[in-house]
From TrEMBL:
<feature type="domain" description="VOC">
    <location>
        <begin position="144"/>
        <end position="264"/>
    </location>
</feature>
<protein>
    <submittedName>
        <fullName>VOC family protein</fullName>
    </submittedName>
</protein>
<dbReference type="InterPro" id="IPR004360">
    <property type="entry name" value="Glyas_Fos-R_dOase_dom"/>
</dbReference>
<dbReference type="Pfam" id="PF00903">
    <property type="entry name" value="Glyoxalase"/>
</dbReference>
<dbReference type="InterPro" id="IPR037523">
    <property type="entry name" value="VOC_core"/>
</dbReference>
<dbReference type="InterPro" id="IPR052164">
    <property type="entry name" value="Anthracycline_SecMetBiosynth"/>
</dbReference>
<feature type="domain" description="VOC">
    <location>
        <begin position="7"/>
        <end position="124"/>
    </location>
</feature>
<dbReference type="InterPro" id="IPR029068">
    <property type="entry name" value="Glyas_Bleomycin-R_OHBP_Dase"/>
</dbReference>
């Protein structure tokens, strides 16, 4: 696809209750999630009004017994999955699932950075009739409701994370906000410095492990916040104003998967 090496191109919800997740995110973000009621283990598309932006992977009993838990994962596109997986291992990261081919979709690997934060790397196969197709799951430059708007890494070692992701994906750290005792909130740009892709920050003491948080755009932050509580989710961080005039929050869905939202306040 036309996305550059190091771009976020897809997001995936791993959940223990696909039907419950469908109802929850429809109410909170307005997504439509395929039902596949006759095949509960099948991967499902999550769509905003303009098309698919993410996927839903139902967690089986075996997956849960093996330590999997409800969460959101991001996919980062790379020019060569096998070479990138080897580089991740050489840099102190780990390979959770060795590279494999997804028929008609591309080649992927499930990996973790040196601090244990997991994500996917992928080289997608472009559609035959549209070789320059570009993923907009992460709407980096134009705000799009239902798309990811921000990728935030909370880590036990921001300095090491900047070196790791910078070397692998070409990301550039430039600009920051001082959070006082919590440390610095440092902004990340894509390798070509076309747009800010997110930020890196020190893991807060109350967070059980380091992880990525993905923020999805909603039209009204307060309406979405109320819907989270009304539909069985938990608001972890109430809406706060962020640079540019929008507001953000952090929450967990009823199955425990953490996510963020970004939106205006009416």
């Amino acid at each position: 696809m036309a996305n550059n090496h190091g771009d976020f191109i897809w997001y995936e919800l791993m959940t223990s209750d696909a039907a419950g997740a469908r109802d929850f995110y429809a109410a909170v973000i307005g997504w439509d999630i395929e039902t596949n009621s006759d095949a509960p283990k099948v991967y499902r598309m999550i769509s905003a009004s303009d098309g698919p932006v993410a996927g839903l992977l139902p967690l089986t009993a075996d997956m849960l017994a093996g330590g999997a838990h409800p969460c959101w994962m991001g996919y980062i596109t790379v020019s060569d999955v096998d070479a990138c997986a080897a580089a991740i291992k050489d840099a102190g990261g780990s390979i959770c699932m060795e590279p494999w081919d997804i028929e008609g979709v591309g080649r992927a690997a499930f990996v973790a950075d040196p601090q244990g934060v997991m994500f996917y790397i992928m080289k997608p196969i472009p559609p035959a009739d549209n070789p320059d197709a570009q993923s907009t799951s992460f709407a980096a430059e134009t705000p799009m409701v239902g798309h990811c708007a921000w990728n935030e890494l909370s880590t036990t070692d921001p300095h090491a994370a900047k070196a790791f992701y910078g070397a692998l994906f070409g990301w550039v750290q430039e600009g920051d906000m001082d959070m006082g005792p919590l440390g610095k909130y440092e902004f990340w740009w894509d390798g070509a410095k076309r747009f800010m892709l997110g930020a890196v920050m020190p893991k807060m003491a109350e967070m059980p492990v380091p992880f990525w948080t993905y923020y999805f755009r909603v039209p009204d932050i307060d309406t979405a916040c109320a819907a989270i509580s009304a539909h069985g989710g938990t608001v972890i961080q109430e809406p706060i104003e962020i640079p540019g005039g929008d507001y953000s929050l952090v929450a967990a869905d009823p199955q425990g998967a953490a996510f963020g939202l970004v939106g205006a306040r009416a």
